Amino acid sequence: MPLTFELCPGRMIGGEHPCFIIAEIGQNHQGDIEIAKKMIKMAKSCGADCAKFQKSELENRFNKKALERPYNSKNSWGNTYGEHKRHLEFSHDQYRDLQRYAAEVGIFFTASGMDEMAVDFLDNINVPFIKVASADTNNFPYLAQTAKKGRPMVVSSGMQSMETVRQAYKTVKEHNENFVILQCTSTYPLNPDEVNLRVIREYQKEFPDIPIGYSGHETGISISVAAVALGAKVVERHVTLDKMWKGSDHAASLEPTELAELVRSIRLVERAMGSSIKQMLPSEKSLFVKLGKSVVAKENIPKGTVLTLNMLRVKAAEPIGIPAEDIFQLVGKSVTKDVEEDESIVSGVVDGYVKKAKC
What we know:
Layout: E1 5-8, E2 11-13, E3 20-26, H1 33-46, E4 50-55, H2 58-61, H3 64-68, H4 81-88, H5 92-105, E5 108-113, H6 116-124, E6 130-132, H7 140-147, E7 153-156, H8 162-173, E8 179-184, H9 198-206, E9 212-216, H10 222-229, E10 234-238, H11 256-273, H12 285-291, E11 293-297, E12 312-316, H13 327-330
Parallel strand pairs: 3-4, 3-10, 4-5, 6-7, 7-8, 8-9, 9-10
Antiparallel strand pairs: 1-2, 11-12
Helix pairs in contact: 1-5, 1-11, 7-8, 10-11
């Protein structure tokens, strides 16, 4: 059984606990604090567990030339990549404001720490856990520094090889027991052929002592629901108020009706996963009474006759007799009374037959 731990105050994950659903607002707020608040409220109303953003200290995350690079994309909010990112980056005070608002709304609040200084800030404002973006999963010094904060971590694995993910696991594990690895493919939007949900199973085998989750960038909800059926204990999806807004993430994001349906479907699948014990359920018994199969006499069988298989057959019978699966146990045993053709063979009629308890 994977490790169970408290990801957020009062919210356990792993084992049989419900999947933790992260609404990734990221920078889909368009740099507008009021839109960000609307998105937090939307995430809560749709049933998500957490509203998540992305926090960067830009000069620490990018070098000077990267920030000065011309950025002429249709999604650009500035002439250079630095101007674009600054437009979308909230200040420390704005983050504290959003954190307070999330608390008022009643939803957990956190962010991806996109560089070491951002992680320091998130730790300082006491977020419940820190998200590691896929681009930093091979940044082992960053992983170690983040793990040493002692906060639970959620680590995405897009763009990485299995060997890199193993090394990331070892790096975090050395300092921090409480973390999750998410299967992820860093394409926006994601082609279903490149989702590779089977990696979830591989991670479960490779890292049996931690929960495994899924971060999806596909369109629709079906694949994310399937990830939960495979055992994902955390699901993260980008969300938006309008897929037509400017920005590269919107096309791979869920609008409110889709997010609400994702949450509903995940909770339905969790109910349907049920128990691993296979048995006849109380709700099935009425149908069994009508259609369940019993052993009946294929011919008249006089008292004292030693039964052979060709004397017996299986039918839906009244009254219910010896269950069909026990027919071979009757061979070689004798009947203690006359049994007419087509009559149910009941347990008290066969000498030495003992009905086995069903598990």
